UniProtKB/TrEMBL annotation:
Its EC number is 2.8.4.3. It is an enzyme of class 2 (transferase). This is tRNA-2-methylthio-N(6)-dimethylallyladenosine synthase. SMART domains: Elp3. [4Fe-4S] cluster 1 binds at C32, C68, C106. GO terms for molecular function: 4 iron, 4 sulfur cluster binding; metal ion binding; tRNA-2-methylthio-N(6)-dimethylallyladenosine(37) synthase activity. GO terms for cellular component: cytosol. Monomer. Catalyzes the methylthiolation of N6-(dimethylallyl)adenosine (i(6)A), leading to the formation of 2-methylthio-N6-(dimethylallyl)adenosine (ms(2)i(6)A) at position 37 in tRNAs that read codons beginning with uridine. The lineage of its organism: Bacteria, Pseudomonadati, Pseudomonadota, Alphaproteobacteria, Hyphomicrobiales. The keyword S-adenosyl-L-methionine applies.
């Protein structure tokens, strides 16, 4: 699944200055890439209401928290942020200046009424499936109503959102996310996603192709397809034939000007033959795959309802590597799931040793009320979770550093994304999603250039332009 740990400020849409009265919105995005995508689409929707995006909260008339519910801490952060915003609202009220507070995303979906009860300063609560109605919700709130809109909308929000490439002032980028699928029917016993994002829904092929073509016409060179269970995507082609994510990738690969494709996040059960063929055939499908396994013990995998065994996962990785030998793996791991013994944990370490990851996210199990895992016996004491996480992270970090070191001296393709800190320096992405600094005076953002890796730091690589 998609969520990762990064906390991101999404401030994608400055200046639509023509509209009056001009209001400013500050959007704080928590959690996964899908929330980053959603924040962008919410700021497009707000731009059509005359809102410009600011990255200075002090300056904002509306603060929107786009929240994550995946672990307990993520939800707690929202309530403490709301406490601080309540104080700001009091100060603004004394100055006679508008200050509205909105909560969007998965905490909004899961705890909408609870948020409204606990935090009277909140004006609008809006779920991930209804955010196309945000402008109306704000208008209703402005005349004194408190709006909680977390029903699953019958209409397709994507049909009601403004074209992301048409929003004036949206920061243009050479990489973009594109949501193709939302929700999850897998019901892993630790996970809230099936409850917050609902059941699996795939966007239609033509809607996706059309959004991709617009993004590419707007200068995007790399697209990352998003979904909580992206490889469960399914649709129908022009001939009415049922197709899956592999076919979608072949179709998108035909778009002239598009240089790179990625997708995240996948479930091992949905890695079908066609998708593996796409990794074999499409050079533009980057050789990097986020394929969470969560644990290495079959007993724990069963209790987690992952519906595959550790050996099946390892065999799958072997098939994918046979199809695309330069592929690098990324994963998600949970330590301290209820009932996890030392022996079970050892099996996770063994699996990590066997697979070898270029990158990974790992977490202590966090009890989520309402999920089946919460009711299991034998919860693991906190100090054991802490110790297991430290051991796992030590191993994963070692593998990550070994992978980075193995690239030193190699010539690779780099998509240049943004200026670096020093003059003449640019920052790009390797095929394996690493950030790479290069001195490249004669190249521009959006170019894909050949570089030789010269050094590896803890979070990024360094390179020089390769001759010829
Ligand atoms: N506790 C800890 N980690 C969790 N994840 C999902 N739910 C929980 C939970 N209750 C992790 C999984 C998932 C990632 C996005 O977050 O590893 O793949
Ligand atoms: Fe991923 Fe399982 Fe959660 Fe679905 S239920 S989003 S597969 S972790």
């Amino acid at each position: 699944m998609t969520q990762d740990t990064a906390l991101i400020d999404a401030t994608g849409t400055p200046e639509d200055a023509a509209a009056a009265p001009e209001r400013k919105v500050f959007i704080k995005t928590y959690g996964c890439q899908m929330n980053v995508y959603d924040s962008g689409r919410m700021s497009d929707a707000l731009a059509s209401e005359g809102y410009v995006t600011t990255d200075d909260m002090e300056d904002a008339d509306l603060v929107l928290l786009n929240t994550c519910h995946i672990r307990e801490k993520a939800a707690e952060k929202v309530y403490s942020a709301l406490g601080r915003l309540r104080e700001t609202k009091k100060v603004r009220a004394a100055e006679g200046r508008e200050f509205m507070i909105g909560v969007a995303g998965c905490v909004a979906q899961a705890e909408g009424d609870e948020i409204a009860r606990r935090e009277p300063a909140v004006d609008v609560v809006i779920g991930p499936q209804t955010y196309h109605r945000l402008p109306q919700a704000l208008r209703r709130a402005r005349i004194g109503e408190r709006v909680v809109d977390t029903e699953y909308a019958l209409e397709d929000k994507f049909e009601h959102l403004p074209d992301p490439t048409k929003t004036k002032g949206r920061v243009r980028s050479v990489t973009a996310f594109l949501t193709v699928q939302e929700g999850c029917d897998k019901f892993c016993t630790f996970c809230v996603v099936p409850y917050t994002r609902g059941s699996e829904v795939s966007r239609p092929l033509l809607q996706i192709v059309s959004e991709a073509e617009k993004l590419v016409a707007d200068g995007v060179r790399e697209l990352t397809l998003l979904g909580q269970n992206v490889n469960a995507w399914h649709g129908v082609d022009a001939a009415g034939r049922a197709i899956g994510l592999g076919d979608l990738l072949y179709r998108l690969a035909e778009i002239p000007g598009l240089a790179r494709l990625r997708y995240t996040t996948s479930h091992p059960r949905d890695m079908d033959d066609r998708l593996i063929e796409a990794h074999r055939d499409l050079r533009m499908l980057m050789p990097y795959l986020h394929l969470p396994v969560q644990a290495g013990s079959d007993r724990i995998l069963k209790a987690m309802n992952r519906r595959h065994k550790a050996a099946e996962y390892v065999a799958l990785i072997e098939r994918i590597r046979a199809a695309r030998p330069d592929i690098a793996l990324s994963g998600d791991f949970i330590v301290g799931f209820p009932g996890e013994t030392d022996e079970d944990f050892r099996a996770t370490l063994d699996l990590v040793e066997t697979v070898g990851y270029a990158q990974a996210y790992s977490f202590k199990y966090s009890t989520r009320p309402g999920t089946p895992g919460a009711d299991l016996p034998d919860h693991v004491p906190e100090e054991i979770k802490v110790e297991r996480l430290a051991r796992l992270q030590e191993l994963l970090l070692k593998q990550q550093q070994e992978f980075s070191q193995s690239l030193i001296g190699r010539t690779i393709d780099l998509l240049l994304e943004k200026p670096g800190r020093l003059p003449g320096q640019l920052i790009g992405r390797s095929p394996w999603l690493q950030s790479v600094n290069v001195d490249a005076n004669s190249s521009q953002i959006g170019d894909i250039i050949n570089v030789r890796i010269t050094a590896a730091g803890p979070n990024s690589l360094f390179a020089e332009v390769a001759e010829g």
